[in-house]
Amino acid sequence: MSTETQARGARAGFDLDRPWQLHPQVSVRPERFGALLYHFGTRRLSFLKSPALLTVVSSLGDAPSARDACRLAGLTEAELPAYAAALETLASSQMICARVSS
Amino acid sequence: MSERTATADITEVTAQAEPQAPELAGADLLVEEVSIDGMCGVY
Amino acid sequence: MTQPLVTQPPVTQPPVTQPPVTLPLVEQFQYGLDAPICLTWELTYACNLSCVHCLSSSGRRDPRELTTAECRAVIDELERMQVFYVNIGGGEPTVRSDFWDLVDYATAHHVGVKFSTNGVKIDPAVARRLAASDYVDVQISLDGATAEVNDAVRGPGSYATALRAMRHLAEAGFRGFKISVVVTRQNVSQLDDFQAIANRFGAQLRLTRLRPSGRGADVWDELHPTAGQQRELYDWLVAHGEQVLTGDSFFHLAAYGEALPGLNLCGAGRVVCLIDPIGDVYACPFAIHDSFLAGNVRGPGGFAAVWRESELFADLRRPQTGGACHSCSAYDSCRGGCMAAKFFTGLPLDGPDPECVKGHGERALSAAAGASPPRPSGDHSHRTRPADPVPVSIGARPPASRGLPPAGHGLPSASQRLPPDRACDESPLAGFSPGPGG
């Protein structure tokens, strides 16, 4: 097992307008309540407690920005702050990471 | 009451979650995190 | 204006077995999942040691052990079900000749592996191989920070074996392997010392609860922490335990106040289970008894069918009312404690845990004094005492009285329990009734 690196999340707030992606070491398992995410490197489990959040996370890699992924999932403007907070949590634990290419 | 606090880990919390111990840092409505070791009934 | 809670699309009334999606996570999990999140797989009952508290009563290999091909088939199923990782134990799993074959097969099929070992086979070459693997974790068992305390439980030389394995892992560059300690009356004063050992080897400390399971049933009275020591342990975990794993085994202590990290609920049959060396599927490794036997992977539908269709697991996944604990203010925190601990101390499953922090369990045990608790199903313990100077080839001793620790372990004699007059036929779910959650 490689050494766990400390998470360096976006402490100032999640940037919805950048491209993101699921970390390559993360396995996604859809569930009735949303999804389970398991990171094989950090050995952390995340529980996504909404199916909409699963849709967002699954489509991050293909969307130009996280905001686009949220819109595609049918989220309203009012819902964005909660989802941005959720995405920040996932970034802090390396479940999702910034995408380099567009 | 401290006993009620114990359930706040798992049950819904308000959108204004205070910063807490690492385990609770993401304890918002949509995401919860735990170590893969955090399930009872495994060696 | 307060932000509204996350908007959910209107949910039509789901069938009775499906909980509403807005339930807290702990309630969600009580209904069970389509696949375990992780599970314990005891690969063999064979073991080079005879630890006095062994939860699987291991020692002698069972001739009906799953073959290599059958084990691979199980791994294939785990992959299909997307079980994230499997905790391989035993007995001593590394004594199986196909152990490395199976570990490699699992990781090649997207199932992470952590294996639990007493360290007997972790030589420098093995340690280097493990350090090079990304998806294999190692857990070394240790029950004393000194040889004196450890070997009293695990046998002469076991401390040395464990530390040698740790040294090899550290020297091979394997950071973060686990040192797993079962907390007992004898070692609860050594928690800081355990942490020091973990620090010395770059390992992560894991503390778990002693359950009265397997051979643990016979030493539980002498070894389980006192009420005062339980409080000590809880306080230590709250103060120093940020980096310490617990396997969520102390969720019954949540009744003291702040819950420890973890799901804080019994995962048996809901998010975890056990596959034993002969393919039997139990609710959890601490409940190896016919009452908690869900099926066998050799059945027509394999492991998946057992997980999804067994009657036992369906029963466990119905909402629990809390029974006698329902009116206790701590119930939401402790969830009534550990099913296996209650079962093997003869307590009803819908009542308090034997180590209930409010003392309800102690009172219940006193009230039940004299009744014989259920015995573990099966006993693969060594028949001869490893420390006995008489060579094995001369002939096996008569079967040792159940539960007496082999000579030289230094523990006071375990109290003998008479076997019950008849097999316990009481359903472990007596008192559970489907209904609205407590």
Quick synopsis:
The complex is a heterotrimer of chains A (102), B (43) and C (438). Chain A is an alpha+beta fold and 102 residues long.
Strand-helix topology:
The complex is a heterotrimer of chains A (102), B (43) and C (438).
Chain A: E1 20-22, E2 26-31, E3 34-39, E4 44-48, H1 51-59, H2 66-72, H3 80-92, E5 96-98
Antiparallel strand pairs in A: 1-5, 2-3, 3-4
Chain B: H1 2-8, E1 31-35
Chain C: H1 25-30, E1 38-44, H2 68-81, E2 85-90, H3 99-108, E3 112-117, H4 124-131, E4 136-141, H5 147-154, H6 158-171, E5 178-183, H7 191-201, E6 204-209, H8 216-223, H9 227-240, E7 274-275, E8 280-282, E9 293-296, H10 302-309, H11 311-316, H12 331-334, H13 339-344, H14 360-367
Parallel strand pairs in C: 1-2, 1-7, 2-3, 3-4, 4-5, 5-6
Antiparallel strand pairs in C: 7-8, 8-9
Helix pairs in contact in C: 4-6
Outline the structure in words.
The complex is a heterotrimer of chains A (102), B (43) and C (438). By secondary structure, chain A is of the alpha+beta class. Chain A has 3 helices and 5 strands. In chain A, a hairpin with a 2-residue loop joins strand 2 (26-31) and strand 3. Chain B has 43 residues and is of the alpha+beta class. Chain B has one helix at residues 2-8; one strand at residues 31-35. The model of chain B is unreliable at 1-27 (pLDDT under 50). Chain C is an alpha/beta fold and 438 residues long. Chain C is globular, with a radius of gyration of 22 Å. The B-C interface holds B 1-7, 9-12, 15, 21-23, 29-30, 32, 34-43 and C 2-3, 5-6, 22, 24-26, 37-40, 84-85, 87, 89, 112, 116, 139, 180, 206, 242, 245-249, 251, 254-255, 257-259, 261-268, 271-274, 283-286, 329-330, 332-333, 338.
